[in-house]
Amino acid sequence: MSTIDVINTKNEKVGEAQLSDSIFNLEVKEYLLHDVVRMQLAGRRAGTACTKTRVEVSGGGSKPWRQKGTGRARAGSRRSPLWRGGGVIFGPKPRDYSFKLNRKVKKQALAMAMSARFQEGNLVVLDDFTMDAIKTKNFVSIMNLLNIENGLIITDGVTENLTKSARNVNGFKVLPTDGLNVYDILLHKKLVLVQPAIENLEKRLMA
Question: Hey, what domains does the chain have and what are their CATH numbers?
Answer without folding.
Answer: 2-46+97-206 (3.40.1370.10), 51-91 (no CATH)
